[in-house]
Amino acid sequence: MNRTGVALAADSAVTFGMANSQKIRHSALKLFMLSKYQPVGVMVYNNASLLGVPMEMIIKQFRHQLGRKAFGKLQEYGEALVSYLDENKVLFPKGVQDRYFLHLVKREYEQIRDDVNKEYVNLGKYGDTESQAGLVEEVINNRLKFWRSQQNADYFNVHASDVVDRISGRVNEVLHDVFHVNSWPVDDKGVKMLCEIANHIIEKDHFPLDGLSGLVIAGFGEEEHFPVVQQIEIGGVYADRLKFRSLAIDAVTEANPSDVMAFAYKDMVEQFLVGGSRSFVGYLEDATAFIREMPLRVLEAAVPDLGGEEKAQVAEVLRRVGADSAADFKRSVRLGFEQRWRKIVDAVEALTISELAQVASTLVNLSSFEQQMSLDSETVGGPVDVAVISKGDGFIWIDRKHYFRKELNDHFFRNYYDKENKFVEEKEEGWEEDSKDDE
Q1: Rounded Cα distance, 296 and 118, in Å
Q2: Over the stretch 242-286, which tens digit does the pLDDT of each residue have?
Q3: What is the pTM for the complete model shown?
Q4: Which alpha helices (H) appear in 91-215, and where do they start and end?
Q5: Element (H, E) at 422
Q6: How far apart are CA 30 and CA 14, in angstroms?
Q7: What gap in Å lies between CA 395 and CA 59, rounded to an integer?
Q8: How many CA atoms, within 13 angstroms, populate the side-chain half-sphere of residue 252?
Q9: Where are the alpha helices (DSSP H) in 12-123?
């Protein structure tokens, strides 16, 4: 995005979990107009549904309810959408809430069980019941430590114990199916720890990927002249309350005239923007440690007979030189990353609205191409939907897939604004009648 507007691009890949396998389809809709009348759009990432309800349907129902309403700030559109979800008891009845919570609990328990399997194979203690019990408890305890280390979701005012205690019988059934049916013994202590993990799924500020639906709302409020982007992550519905967190809002300003953002699968985009992958950054840390320690290794290997006090003095000098060299190396590499990022962002500042669309589309296709050239699952792929939003022209589609042929469905396009237009016509007719009465 830059002062001209914001370009949004989304692929069509969506992953469905089926038993122990996954299937990827390339037909999902992830980019929508949030309002038919205001310059605001929304993208969906990670889960394309919320508790089994397609986000496409949710957004279109909200859009219908929103009608011609406009807000002064872009952030208010996100707040209105969250309120719509939080107050909608019809879409997310209690039984559905419980079923999807139990699904998250089961996936968490299955991950623990898989970790137990891996550790058990590595240890090679087949048939040793005592080792089995100790190993299960150790892996459960390690996972519990991870959950305890997460911050509390203080913004979510729901008592997790109320939910877990109410369906404790079904939680125990999940526990039995995952562990005991697979011959992994879980004692009372282990059961207690697993129940605590179930509580943490609700009360901690950590959203398991299976339950995470991300929203990216972009465009302009009536009072805003430059584009704004708001990111919201939804972690489920518990006790009739929506668990969500609003992340930092990005805006084009005089001090920040352009920006490029990636969501969900970010690796390839970030690698292009800064010139290095996350794994490369990990190697950078290894290289820094190598440079810092190498002088001391050379001292040990080259001058083994050096006296104690003299050796300590030389070692101190070499340690200081090694630390300085390592810091200089790390600083220069990071400076190179920053300079590359700054050049690209500066180039984005000068792009026209159509060029912004081309850049956004290219970055998504770049991520798709990278996955095609690897043996990993192609979680990015299919047709790319592209839209641009400007203050003057509003939401404009550049590329858009349809599941139907336009020439066979004229009625869809005729009726697209029908209800709202009818409402406006009625208001105008009423105004004319009022004017006649005044005369």
Answers
A1: 38
A2: 999 999 899 999 999 999 999 988 888 888 888 877 777 778 888
A3: 0.82
A4: 94-123, 129-149, 160-166, 168-175, 188-203
A5: helix 418-438
A6: 9
A7: 15
A8: 27
A9: 55-66, 74-86, 94-123
